[in-house]
Amino acid sequence: MKKKFLALLATSLLVVSCLNQKQEGVVVASPEDFQEKIVSSDVQLLDVRTQSEFSEGHITNATNIDVLQSDFKDKVANLDKEKPVLVYCKKGGRSAKAATILKEMGFKEITDLEGGFISWTKSGKEIEE
Known about the structure:
With about 130 residues, the chain is an alpha/beta fold. The protein has a single domain (about 25-120), classed as Oxidized Rhodanese, domain 1. The protein is built from six helices and five strands. A five-stranded parallel β-sheet has the order 1-5-4-2-3. It starts with a helix and ends in a 7-residue tail after the last helix.
């Protein structure tokens, strides 16, 4: 019984910590809302997965900058901080990390794709291979 309680407590803490990774000032958007933002405005679309993941398929017009690489900050520093940035990864974890970094660097408008590239493809949205 005690082991089950501890496992439940650990799982609850993990869920809460993941939810708290979404920083204030970062919008988390469904695939439908994310697509509307891509189409309706002049945005910078950022895929933060690895190069190999990107080459297997990505959202059209996305720029690939791997958030796990040491030069991530140097590369995103070349983006326009005044223009909206739409960011995604495979499931949402790495893009949350990237969104936090972008916010700390002074980017004004950041949108993170809820559920990442997996939710995008499951929603039947178009990709480029």
